[in-house]
Every structure is written in C-alpha cells, then in structure tokens.
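User: My collaborator and I are trying to settle a disagreement about how two of our proteins should look. Neither of us wants to argue from intuition anymore, so we agreed to look at predicted structures for both before our next call. Could you fold the first one, then the second, and keep them clearly separated?

Assistant: That sounds like a sensible way to settle it. I'll keep them separate. The first protein:
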Amino acid sequence: MAEQLTWHYNHRSQDGKMRHPVDYLVWKNIDNKWPNFASEPRNLRLGLSLDGFNPFGDFSSRYSYWPVILMTYNLPPSLCMSKENMMLTLLIPGPKQLGNDIDVYLQPLIEDLKELWVRVSVYDEWRDNTFSLKAVLMWTINDFPAYGNLSGYSTKGRKACLVCGVQTCSQWLENGKKHAYMGDRRWLPEDDPFRFKASWFDGTEKHRAKPIQLTGSQVFQVVKDFVNDWGKEKKQKDGEDGKRKRKRQRAEDKTNDLEDDGGVNPFKLTKRWKKRSIFFDLPYWEALLLHHNLDMMHTEKNICESLLGTLLNMKGKTKHNPNSRKDLKKMGIRKNLHLKNDDLSSFKGTTPAYVFLKGERFMKTLKDYVKNRSNPEECIAEKYLAEELTKFCSGYFTQAADVGVQHKRNEDLEDDNVLEGRGFGGKSRPMTPTMLQIAHRYVLMNTIILDPWRKMLKDELKLLDSRLTKNESLLDKKHMKKFSCWLSEMVRTGDSADMPNIVRWLACGPRREVKSCSSFIINGNRFHTKAAEKDTQNSGVFVERDMYCRASAKDTALRLEMVDYYGVIREIILLDYHNFKVPLFHCDWANISNCVKVEDGFTLVNLNQGKHQFERDLFIFASQAKQVFYSRESKTSNWYVVLRAPPRGFYENENLNEVEYIPCAPFDVSQLGHNLDDDNCLRRDSEDVNNNASVISA
C-alpha cells in the first residue's frame, strides 16, 4: 500500500481527459501554490465525505447519525474509493439533526488536519526511511442540505445558490409552493439567442450579466468577523409567554426578487450567512480552487430523473401535475397547456428510488453494521474497528490475502499451456476433420509470427505463375490452399533451422481432441458461450477486419477497407498444438450485407438471419474479440441495438479510447435552430399529449 501512495506521480493523463483527481485543476492549483508540498509524492491529498442517515433501516428523520469519512486520492482509481481505504474518522451521534452546530463536532478533526499540514514524521516501510508527511484536505463531498451546514450559507429559500449568492434568480410558484430557479440563461454569452427566447423559458428575456463568483479568499473576507453562536434555542409553544405566536410572514412577500438583506452586493455580510465555517481554520482552505462538491444523488437522481420523467411522461416520476399547470397560467406561458377543467383524476404519483455514489454506498455499509437498535453508534464503531484490526494483522501473515487490495475479477493470469487468457469449465471432445481444418487454417493465416513464411510462399507462387502478380484475389486463394502443406513440408525436409519452436509446432498441426470451455477471460473481459448464459449476457463479440470491397456490382476495382463484424459465441475451444494451446472463439456471425444497419447513430444487427454466410470462416482469436451487448429493439423485432462496454479497470488504461464505447455520438447543441415554433416541439404520438407540461424546480 505504501508503494501505491505514489501512483499519482507518474500517472497523469496525457490526452487532456480526467480519469483521476490528479488530472483536475484543483490538484494542479495546489501544486502551483505550494511547490514544496507537491515535490514530495507521498504527501496525502484527502477528501471529506459527510452525510446523515437513519441507522435503523427506515426513512424516518427522528434519529440522525453522521459519519465523517476521509478518502485518500493518492491511490489508483480502483483503490482510492474502495471500502477498505475509506477512513471513518468521526462518528457524530444522534438523535437530533446537527445543522450548523456540526462545526463543534468537527473541531478534533480540523485540529488533526492542521497538524498534518505542518508535517508529521512517519516511517516508510517500502523505502525504508523516515520522512516528514504532510496532508491537505482538497474538498468536501456532500448533498445539498449538508452543503449549507458545512459552508455556513443557507441553502433554503430564494437565494439558495452559494455560487450566485444574493444574486440568485428565483421565482415563487404560488400553486407548487416552492421556489423555481430560472436564471441559468445569465451564464450564456450576452448575444446568445437563448437569452431572448422568452416563450421557451419563464416568459421573460434575460439581460442581466452572470453573477460575480467569489473566491475562497473573498468569502473569508465576508465572514471573517462573523461571531459564531453555537446551540439551538428552545422553541416556546403558544401561550407559554402569555402572548400568541404571530404567524410568520413569507420571505417572498417581504422583498422583491432583487433585494435580500442589503441588496445584491455579494461582498457584504447578509443574513444568508449563518456562521463562519470551521474549515477556514485550515491555513490553506481559503486559497483552494474548489471547496465543496455535490454528490450525484441530487444532480443525477433528483434533477435528471425529474427531467426525463417529465419529457417521457413516466408514471410516478413526471412533474406533470395540476399545480404546475396553474403556475404556467399564472406566468402567462404555454397557453395551450393551461388547465381547462377540474378533472384531476389522472394525476397520480409514487415515490421513486434513490441513487447512491461511493460515499453513499459506504453509508449503507455502516448502516448494515447496526445489530443492536439501542446502541447503533457502538455497533458501527465496534464492527469498523474489528475490520481495521483484521486488515492490519493480515499484513503479518505470509500466506494471507491482502485485505483492502482489490483483486481484479477479470485479470488475465498466466497459463503455461494456453498462449493468452484463461478458460473455465468445459470438457474435452473430438473435433470433426472439416472444422479442425477450418480452425487450423485460421491460425496459420492470422498468426503474426508466420508473416515471413507467408510472404515467402507468395513470392514462390508469383514466380511459378505470372498471372498471380496482377490478381491478388487469386493469389490469396492459392496461398490459403497450399500454405499448410508447404509449411509442414519445410519442417519435414529440414529447412526449419531458423524456425522458432512455436512455428514448428504450428506446422505440425493440432490434435483432433480439443477442450471446449464455457467461459474465457482475456483483455479484462469475461466471455461466455451462448448456451452457458443464464442471468448475464457475455456472448456478444465484435471484431474489425480488413476486407476487399467493391463500390458497386459494376465496379471491378477492389479496395481494402475496415469492416465491422458482429456475432455471438457458440463455442470456446482450446486448439491443442502439443506444446501449447491456442484459444479460439467459434461464432455465429450476422450477415454484413443485409443484417447490419445504422439508424439514428445506433448500430443494429439481426442475429437470426444470414448465419450461413461465414460457414468457412467461423473462428477468431480470443485476443481479437471485443465485447458487445445486444439490446432487443422491441419484443417482436429481430433487430438488436449494439452496446459496447469497456473492460474492467478501463479508467486506469490511458491508451483506451473511450469514444469507442459511446453508443451514439452526443448532439451538438450549437447546431440547434433558434427559429423553432413552440407548436413544432409538441409530441402528438400519445394520448393526453396536449395536456402534458410542467415547471421543473429545484
């Protein structure tokens, strides 16, 4: 593990893509501001994740428990977010919500982080020396409510955005009883056409400039004189003080959209600030480029799910409801979508599921530790410490597996008998002479080490027949037919003095007895035969091959082009060449002429027709196969959409092209026309489509 802490030093992305926090601007900003810190690759870069949850397995908020987790970003992507490498630094007990008082509980952790920034002397077992270790907290990761508790800025009400601050654009929806934040067009260029599309958005044009974004130093200047007052005042019930409690007036009725506790000056301390965050006690915090990150539970689940659910009119997930219709009418937009009657029987809703990230999943792990409902904190602490001790002690047992080191499930282990990859299951069986000949011919024609001998035979054939010099197709046919016997004859006649051993064994030919496997692992992918699949689909393969093609039936000129082939694995065989085995995939291929097509950027294949086109060319090397998955277009269709999946650990492979695994290229919004009418954007392919609309608010 000590060696892995310096992984980031030599694994920066070279193509400009972000695969790890080391590629982020925040990391580079720390290197530029503190070069002495960056010069020691063993110095730690940390991230803090914090969230509250109910440890009893229900969604009640009566009991809230807050674990504080630190993550080390020095490690590789497969390790830095693993459960074993997340440090549970604090257990803040319940049952009440912490709110802004969370800083009181974070103080011991902040003191330790301040000490780590100064430096601590530690021993490095890997390099066998002692050095001064320093650590920096790069950012926090939390949901939106915890974001407000950590930053000290109120994330409720009309000015809920910490980035925009008092310049936040918001609008109160009278019927929806919530705030809608529709000022996103302010971030567009001043001459962008979307700024002037009033009817497309909230009925107004946006002429205001984008808000001023405060840096960490500027935020600190705003709140540096703030006097924190910890603790919550006990609320008095009506009548306790002899007075009737006055009904609170809504904030949206007090001020207009541009005023909030002193106008729109972002450099002035307003009532939006509830405290001075304890993170400013860290000497480097105000100089960081990014302080807080929002996890994907809100961004991906709440917003994207609501957006897609509304656009697709998904039952239980759409924001289409009577109140949104009424708000549309009040705003004076989408007149064709206003409610025309009081029939609300068609509006129903359900509670959707939640989406968790790595930090959220670790919270679920901690929740599973609770076995005694009367002492949830003790259960979590005891189980976590037991796992930490087990991990520590495992390093002192010579034959014990390393706890916390993630083992790659699809790792290619070396096999002395198999040239590449490893197979599982299966049994030996005899192969028919015809199929054995086809498999052996494919090995001879596609093994790179045999290139010199293939070229040698082609030169001999051209000398014997001058017609073959101009006719490449005829040359390939004769070469394919004679190469096996010609190579075997060279070995028998003694012309193989300079041949490697692998070429000699290939010339001798394979045994008739082959091993048939049910699954095979190679290049980080696990393949299954079609017959062996149950709950998973791992039999889809894709391969690119060079092929001579004609532009049309009348064209006599042949051109070498790259052609894509799609199929499914019928059988995985290990061809036995006495001294080693060659893995081959026996596949059923889709007919490339009429069973492969491209529609709307997606590749579709028909796997039920045209299987006999490749009866003489059924095999490929296991190393040539790329894994694909097939999603059926509809229940009655024979066409399947091709989906490519990257192998496990692809984010650690800098040479992998991620674009290959995008099923459809993203749409360039700059090509979107700005003169579209609203009527042209309405869907008319389903019932009640003219009554389908919503106002989406955060």
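The second protein, kept apart from the first:
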Amino acid sequence: MLRRQGSDEKNLINEDHERPEDRDQVNHHPEPDRPSSSLPSIQVSHISDKYDGIGTNPPETGRRRDSHRTPSVGDLPNRAGNTGRSGNDEGTYKELLTPGEPPTESLSKHSWEINYREAAIFLDEGRNNDKFLHHPRNMEALPAYLLVHSRWFNTFDFMASIIILALGLFEAPCIPALEVPVPIHGSIELCSLVLLSIQMLLKTRWIGFRSCLQHKRTIIKILSLIIMTIEAAVVLVRQRNHFRITRALRPLFLLDSSFCGGVRRFIRQILQSLPPILDIMGLLLFIMLIYSVLGFYLFGPSDTEPGSLYFNTFTTSFINLFVLLTTANYPDVMMPSYANNKFAAIFFISYLAITLYFLMNLMLAVVYDAFTNIEIGKFKKLFLHKRKACQHAFKLLVTRDNPRQVSFLNFSGLIAQFSPSSSPLDRMLIFKSMLNKPTNPGQTYLCIEDFYKIYDSVQYRWKLKKQKTPYYESCKTCYSLLAGGIRILVKSKGFEFLIYMMIFTNLVLLVLQTYLLTNTSDSQTIYAFWVSYIFISAYTLEAILKIIGLGFVGYFSSAWNIFDFLVTVSGLISIVLTELNIPSFYVVIFRPLRLLRLFKLKKRFRDVFGTFIILLPRLNSAVIVLVLIYYFYGIIGVELFHWCDLRNCCKNTTVEPYYNDNAENGSGIGYYYLNNFESLPIAGITLFELTVVNNWSVIMEGFANTAGEWSRKFNFYSF
C-alpha cells in the first residue's frame, strides 16, 4: 500500500528552515511520496531506455529499466516532487496502488516526468539565485510559475518595460518633432502597465500575496504600478499631460525584469557598501562645515573690508567649498582672497589636501574594499545556493532501489527539461564528463559529488572534429594550384608586413595632408583622390586574394577580416559617389578606421585592445545603472525645470558672462543657456556635463538664479 504523506513532509525546504531528514543529503532517505496517476504527462526525450550508450553496464545495485520488464516499486522515485500533488491533497492520504500490485508503466512514467520537471526548476532557481521559498508547492501553482518563467513571457515583460521608458522621449515636454498625441502615448502606457500588472498577479499565484508583501522590491513595484496606472488613466480622461514626477520611477520595471538580474545584483552591492561610505562622507561633511565657518570669518565681509564674493555668507561659503571639492571653481575661488593676502593660499591648499587628496582617496579605497568583500561573499552564497539546488534536484532523481546514485536514464530526462536545446548526444557527453573516472573507472552512476558539476558541464558544447582541408582541393587542378599558391602568399609574413607598411604610409599621408589644410574645402595636394584610389584598390586586391586563398568561410571567420572588408566596401562606395558628384562625407570618414589594424603590430597593443573587448561585456551592469540614473534625474529635471529660460540670466553675478546670448561670441562661454532640461535627450546631455564636473557649478548657478535656491539641493547636489 503506497500512501501520500502528510503536508509537513511535503513542504519545500528552504535555506533557513531545513528539515532534520534533509541534513544528511545522501545517507538518510525518507519514505517516497507517490504522485497521483491522473496527472498529465509530459513528453521527455531519452537516448535509450537502457544504459548501452555509456559504454559500460550499470552496477548490480541498480536495475536496468528494460521496456520488456514490468516496473516494480523500486523503479519509482525515492521522493515525489511538490508539483505532483494538488493543494487540496495536503494532509490527506491517498492510495495509488492496490496492495501487492506492482506499479503500472503509466504511473512510473508520470512520476518521473513530474520529478524531471521539478528537478529542472530547482536547478534553474540555483542558477538564477532565486529563493527556494518561492518554489511552486503544488500542481495548481505550477502553470503560473512556468508561464512567468518562460522565455517569451519574460521577453514581453522586458519589452513592456523598455516601451514605458521610451515614452519619456515622446511625452510633452519633449522635442517638438518627437511629440505624439496624448491618446496614443497614454494608451500605450496603460497597455504596458496592464501587462506588467498581469505578471505581478501571476507571481502572487504561486508565491502567495502575503509573501509578496514581505518582499521590498515587489511592494515598491506594486505601489508604482498602482500610482502610474491611475495617472495614465487620468491623462487619457483629461486628454492632456500634467505634472508627473512619478515617471522617474519607470526604471524600476526594467530592473525587475528577468534579463536584468546582474544589474539588480550590482545595485544591491552598491546599497550594501553604503554604510562605510556614509561614514567617510560624514567625516567629509564635518571638515567642510569647519572650513566653511573658518572661511567666512577669514574672507567674509567686515566693517573695513568688503570681503570675497565667494565667502560673503556662511551658505555661500559652504556652496563654494563644495564646488571646490570637485576643483570646478579652482583657482577662481581663491584668487580674491589671495590678492589681499598671500597666506590665504594655506587655507585652500590645506582644504584640498585634506578633503580631495586624502578623504576622497580614502573613500575610494573604502568603496573598493567594500565591493571586493561583498563580491566575495556573493560568490560564496551563490556557490552554496547552487549546491543546495543540486541537493534538492538529486533527491528527485534517485530511485528506491538506488537512493544514492542517479542513472543516465534519469539524468537524460532532467537535461531534457533543464537544457531543452541539448541533443541526446549532448546529454550522453555531459553525463560522461561528470563521471569521476580517475578514482572509479567502472563508475556508471552519478553520486551527489559528481552531480554538483552539472552547472559547469551543461555549458559544454561538442562538435565533431574534422580534419581541415582547403576548400580548393575538390576543384580543378589549375584553380587548385592557383588558390594554393595564393593561400601560401596571403599567410606569409612578407605579405602581412607589406599590408602593414601600406597602412602606415596611408596614415602618414593622411595626417600630413590634414596638418597642411587650413580649410576643409581646400584642394588636397598630398592625399589627392588618385592617391585614395590607389590605397582602396590595394585594399580591394588584398580582400580578393584572401577570399581566394582562404575561402569565404575561412576569410569571414576572422573579425579583423570582416572589419577590413566593411571598410574596403565603404571606400568603394565613396569612390562611386564621388564619381557621381554625390556628397560622400559620411562614407569617407570611415577611411581612418582601417588604421586600427596597426593594433595587431605589437603584442602590448593587442593585449590592451583585447582587454578592452573582454571587459566590455562585464561593464554592462555599470553602464545600465548609469543610464537609468540619468533617466531618473532627467525626468525629474524635465518636470521641474523645463520652463526655465537661461538666456541672459544671472545678472550681476560671477557667472553672468556664461549666459549672455551673444551670437558673435565664438569662444563658447555665452552658450551655457543651452544646458537645460527642456526635453529628456537634452537633459541627458546636461547631466553628462555635470558628471564631467568641469564648470558644473556654472550650470547650477544658472538654475539657482532662475528657479530658486532649492534647486541646488534637490537636483544638483544629490546628482
């Protein structure tokens, strides 16, 4: 008699509350659970019902799952998965078999298919660092879980988040050419918010509403969805936009998508490293306050002296010392005081030495140390989390006859769910790569220690090793001899050296001609068009020879060859356009790009270029976080300051010359009124100028004089 166990034993074990019988992952095995035979089946591909593909027979402790043999109780899983039971069955007993009758083949198949699927879910949760607390606990929660975790649903969720972010470019205030009617962008926003709301509702289907309320990010997302949905509905009803500062929270939807897990971890590391950073910032603020008081008494106005404009009040003194911390107003802030007394330089030098060169570098060291420790801790937790996921999955793959080892048949069923793109041959090779052959040559089953390798092994890809033969060997003799000779030529050091010398000559002539020009419309005497034709013809000949000698596949398998080919084609297009008297400036500017091939000349250059290419993908999280911060502050700036006209503002101030609208001014000083927040793209440019910190205080003073002193604290200091 096989009975369903109580709900206490069926509940999933999370990391913080582990059941006693799970503390020993291998040696202790509770009585198996049995899923109902009425569960729907899922098709799982196997290499074979036997173990023949591995090369050796399984040990006597395991049984061969022969299709001609009647399944026994020992062939059933040692433990049934949670998704094999209904939520209504918790705490009840249910007979699955008639006493003394062996299990049917259908029951055995259903049991394993359920376990394969749930074991794959455990491994996915380990790989994605998802909490086991959110694991589906019954078959009713499974459809919502699989739907929300499906690739296409996550893609829709991601696209909806991107669309909501992109609406900031088309909602007023924006660039007039990009503005769209309110009904269009309002309807798009409302539809996207509804899709995101559906995702949240499905999430509560398997997690539970109470669990969702215990997750801070989920609570913030739910509140944002409610507020933004109401605002979008109000915009559609009123048919016009209103003040909507909550648009700045739109990046939250992108951060919550499954494709931005690395970005969330990066932000989490930033938040976790804040305590030591805040300590240093508190010390820095203390030093600034002391110097602000000291600066006011030393350089402020008195009965006999007007004092420096930079220290006429305590507030002005603090603001200018804050700007001085970024060196944006140095030495301007020092010069009036320095003109009155040369010893005033001691004040500014000591301030910069303590704050900029000591405390700021100390803060950098603290940030590095905090990030390093958090990164190490994160990898440790992820490693242990993956091992826990492997342990949960392993328990679902062992049988009653062999409760300490996983057979190839069950492993293949798992991989079919965990990595659906893998072929039967891939599954067999993954299994063999995980076997501990050196210590146990006759091993044909996976123990728990071998099973821990699954995350690395499943990433392996194999392809049949073929002996490479030149493509032209199957061609006629004459062409074969010609192509063979060209192949030897293009792969020779002399040919490569000749091409490099030609590129270097191209560089010298191009730089020399540019140096001698005083106007872009002047005729070119050194780098004339006929010289350009010679170089482009030589590059074209090089590409043709390499294609003949290496073949299309061999030629285009190199990234440098693809780059050369594109630059050569752009050169040919420029020649054609020039002969047709069509302006080809935007094609001609690609000519200097070929000079990048000189990176290949020296190993150190190649290492620098290669390091940049390797690090580029790893900077994705930092770049995305920076872009989202720009979006956040850009939306706030557009909502608060889009009305500000900075032309000829700041009269009788130190920054007045920067905002004089003088069309004859070619120095660039009078064009600071262009640094505004009239639209999201322009706001991004303004924020980038603030990031560079060069003369950022001039931009801040313009808005402080136009919008008010509050703008300093709200948008500029915090940014």
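Some points you might bring to the call about the second protein. Residues 620-717 form one domain. Residues 1-71, 91-99 have pLDDT under 50 and may be disordered.
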